[in-house]
Input
Amino acid sequence: MSRAPAGYDGAMSTRYDADFAAIFGGRDRGDLAFFQRLAREHAGPVCEVGAGTGRVILAVAEVVDGCALTGVEPSEEMRAVFEVRLGTSRNVKCMAGSFTSIPLGDASQGLVFSAFRSFQHVLTTDEQLAALAEVRRVLRPGGIFALDLFDPAYRLLRRARPTLGVRYRTADGRVRERWESREIDRVAQRVDVTFRWIEKDMEGRVLVDEAATYGVRYTFPIELEHLLARAGFEAIDVRGGYDGAPRSARSRELVVTCRAPR
Ligand SMILES: C[S@@+](CC[C@H](N)C(=O)[O-])C[C@H]1O[C@@H](n2cnc3c(N)ncnc32)[C@H](O)[C@@H]1O
Output
């Protein structure tokens, strides 16, 4: 199993859900409804790879009945948060695994998906192909694979000094700031993102100053189509949003569905 990027352990895992809520607040990204609809439309067990703290697979569990749902996640610390959220939910399992090692049987899943860019942590073309072969192994003939990635915008593919991403008050009354910076490797099509959390008390005293870094690979839309075709997927459909909008110059997401051969 490939290791989770260390960036998800420690500093990130315990803040992931609160950061997400603060960044997106009341704004609906549209991803939950998209993956819920796919799970309703395609019968059979469902697996999310890179399930993180369970944000999406637990939302999927709310709308499908009577089929097994598995969230696969390499980071032990992200899984620990997922397990707490899971509580006594019966039809969802949280399992250790990764894109190159999905702990499920051959041809066992009707739908495999990767939400909020987990696939972008697969960093080389060889690893991407190995991951796609592993997804195909667990999919039934005709099963669906769905994933989302950011649509690489040239203006963002350059080095960025630390900027304040979000500031909010935590449940225990601290002021938390998350700063973000990035380094770009254009040859490897890789972005290394560094997050730094600074937490202050009411008087402005710094209580915490922690950082974490992870790498993501950016993949261009046509490259992605070729990659999926090379991995043997069919009916490859690349959209510019979760609502099914076609790609445009302003699209921020690549939302992709494809099918394993029947
Ligand atoms: C941005 S989070 C998304 C989590 C969740 N899908 C969501 O939508 O909130 C990316 C997740 O991918 C996981 N990840 C990183 N490398 C991975 C790999 N090689 N295989 C599977 N998951 C991976 C990380 O540990 C992290 O939990």
